[in-house]
């Protein structure tokens, strides 16, 4: 009987208590996790660059592009799982949430094995499609094959992270992400150079280090969850739930694909901007690249807060606490303005000093970078606003309007401003396209939040 009580108790943390405190505590591990992943990648790049040189760096960049695409391709489905699990737990339907876990586990496991096998077999062909330079090809194939072998652990970790966040736990994924990052950073030089008892493996050593760190972290996370008797773990009695439930699969794909496509829209917009900036010369390209690297850190709080808001709103929608959903929305907007605003203010004060870390302190590039930041940095406060609102409406199951708004603002408006108007009104229109497109997206999403029918959306239209 005590076991049954543990399994049927819905985590209360996201549907009661102080909203602002809960949101900040929930978003901080997500923020730190995103920063940790970026730092992990940067340190490994330093190891490879120092020990193996530019050719090896080029080889890994090709593999990382492939993995970025694969992870983004499952992002939407994972977010749909977060919402579905959150709504069910908010409604105290633990068994329904477990059905989502069971089906998602089979789906992700099958998909990851297929991707890993195809990637291992066709790594050379995929790299040819990417026009990988001949002098990079051999190392790139070696590195990419091992990275593909680790896909089941990457997909598995992302699924467990989604399940945990859906149930209100953002801390546990961060701890095991930290374990993976520490192992990866420590093993890279040992396996690249063959230090101590470790074999010298060159670029393959870097990939093996990543593989081992992901495997250890993934297995440790599963062991930890079962030892702690996590509420949504699959027990012996739940084994029948490890099957494909086509109603759940249809929901995850129908709701998840638009979220995944949203990332494609953002990437497409950025690629088109880079193509345009390249035409203005190497100084502009360098300045833009560094400015966007800085912006990637500026937008991290907004992304973390939006993730927290989405999980909180999903549980409260499931519980029918709509007054609390509204408060979550405006609290999320306020927290974003505060957190992102403080970062933006600090960067404005030390604009040139921060840019000089990446660019020569004297020269045209750093002046262009300062100018870009002066125009674009504050716009990421607006970016955070529409991300929060999007997170709320998606948590109800309304996913098409945010996708349409993103396409209108980030592709149609931004690229038109940057390409057409820059020829008439000058180079600055490229940078002004950021605040203008973000403002349009925020306005569209706020209007939909106020007047749209997102509250009538449903994640699942039929019983599973």
From TrEMBL:
Q: Which PANTHER family match?
A: MULTIDRUG RESISTANCE PROTEIN YPNP-RELATED (PTHR43549:SF3)
User: What is one GO cellular-component annotation here?
Assistant: plasma membrane
> Which segments cross the bilayer?
66-89, 101-122, 142-160, 172-191, 203-226, 260-280, 286-309, 330-350, 370-389, 396-417, 429-449
Which keywords has UniProt assigned to this entry? Cell membrane, Membrane, Transmembrane, Transmembrane helix, Transport
Q: Which organism is it from?
A: Cohnella lupini
Q: Does the keyword rRNA-binding apply?
A: no
List the protein's name. Answer: Putative MATE family efflux protein
Q: How does it sit in the membrane?
A: Multi-pass membrane protein
Tell me which positions the record assigns to the signal sequence: none
- Kindly indicate whether the keyword Transmembrane helix belongs to this entry: yes
Q: Which NCBIfam families match?
A: matE
**Pfam families of this UniProt entry?**
MatE
- Say which domain of life the source belongs to: Bacteria
What's one GO MF term for it? antiporter activity
Q: Where found, per UniProt?
A: Cell membrane
